[in-house]
Amino acid sequence: xxxxxxxxxxxxxxxxxxxxxxxxxxxxxxxxxxxxxxxxxxxxxxxxxxxxxxxxxxxxxxxxxxxxxxxxxxxxxxxxxxxxxxxxxxxx
Length: 92
What we know:
92 residues, Transcription Regulator spoIIAA, 4-stranded parallel beta sheet, two-stranded parallel sheet, 6 strands
């Protein structure tokens, strides 16, 4: 299990690095990803796509999991409005 803390803003500038890190962990054989979002106050559509892309990769491999932890109410609302809250896993 590996825990990764996200940036304050997940946008076009920071999302590519997040995507690279998460996919690298999977490529290295990591099965359980914990994404700590306690500092994140903003997420763009590019950031949302990172999480959905990684989740699809995990499901395609039919093993492993990714959990988004400490998601603020404002960010959770974005996941809910976009419908991604039903695709991703969350934990307090």
